[in-house]
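Sat 14:20. Reprocessing the chain from the morning session after the first attempt stalled halfway. Input below, unchanged.
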Amino acid sequence: MKIEFEKNEFWWGGIVHRGVEMPINANQHAVIDFGDINTPNQSTNLLLSSKGRYLYSQEPYTATFNNGTVEIDREITYRDGYANLRGAYLAAMRAYFPFENCLPDQHFFTMPQYNTWIELMYEQNQADIIKYAEQIIENDFPTGILMIDEGWAEDYGSYEFRKGAFPDAKGMVEELKQMGFRVMLWMTPYISPDSAAFREIEPLGYLIKDHTGETAIRRWWNGYSAVLDLTNQNTCNWFYHKLKGIMSTYGIDGFKFDGGDPNMYRDTDRIAVPMSSWEQMKKYGEVGLRFSFNEFRAGWGLGGKTLSYAAVG
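Finished this time. Tokens:
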């Protein structure tokens, strides 16, 4: 489909790291490929015009701006008549990602958020986490939400603290809460392929299979892992109960849901409910909707929901 620029019209596209290029006018050439955004920051398949028009699709598309036209590589939703940029955004929001009546937990707005990754990276351990919390208070920073990042668990798919690094994890969480912190844990939808969790759930069909029918083992920034098939309700139930078990055992308030990036999913995946790679990302986000304390680094299609996003949204 092809749309002509109106006189003195400007367009904005929903990719954060390309914001410096906006707005796009009739004399510019630009290509926005929502399926290959190559960014850890937020994006959405929405184009907005200063003349009250918008273009939107729930699936990625490519928009080419050239010589006063906007050319889209396939048919998507086009609407106009909303007077200005604000009117176009509000119309798209109401139609496709309306805000729910409730917000994320108020602590996300009233308290700072601290993350132990910045201090410790992969060397997460009880003594240094307590030391970090004490230093926050000693330096007159307010207490807030403390996220214990990657490295707390024995393995990907293990939902127990590393014994050597955390001799008394429950006591640690209790101490942090006595200081005034709320505590969250880092989490991913990945399972190490040589782990006890893999051996437990792979025969149950809880892991994504590739196009050949073999359990998919995919590379991410920490190596190679299997991926939970969250189109399978049984998988979702298993994952949810594991997370609730951590909360009950250790007093954890919620989770930083990392991973779930689009490159970990394929349109050709053999999964319980066939869907695109982008829709699979959405399933991961829907897990987080069940927890009042959540943060996502990556997500898709859940605008307006009570989710906290640190990056791709």
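The chain has a mean pLDDT of 92.
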